[in-house]
Fold:
Amino acid sequence: MSDRSSDNPKRHWERPETEDIATAAQFAAFIADDRLLRLFAYWQGKRNGRPMPARSDIDPTEIPWALPQIFLVDYTPESGFRYRLSGTELSSIYGHSNLKGMTLEDILGPEGAAVVTGRWLPLVEQKQVLCMKGVVYLPTDRTAIGERLMLPLADVADGPVTGLLGMTICEWHKGEVAEELKLSRVKTLSVSMIP
Structure:
């Protein structure tokens, strides 16, 4: 694979264009896929006056339409990110029937885990929601173009983030992909800005 930027989708995946958004309406307007909008609405409905819902508030049986593409990840400062639940589409991308109990390093190796951890930690540390468009999985022999939504969870009402709820919708492309499709754009919003 060439290192020229136009031929290297990994560059877009590792260094997306990131921008903070000021309002929940702007964040929702950035989300293109209806399933991601439904998941955002579900997460908002589970907040019950808190900045973020707890992991125990998320019931996968209430969102059967999302199951193939969703994931729940637990977070602790000591052990980092560990999958609690992964949809069949996500698990199959990494050659597993289930990612439950696996860490990012188990799945991606040290280098890939470092990139993803660097992208996910701000959601934990700054209590943010995130929507990403463009290259959504670390490229291999094909390119995943799509959209990802990630939403923080906290076991204590205004406590630290203890997990993430995410969903990824994508299409796989073999061969050359238009440069504008590869561009990874990320929008984030503080949970404190969500009414």
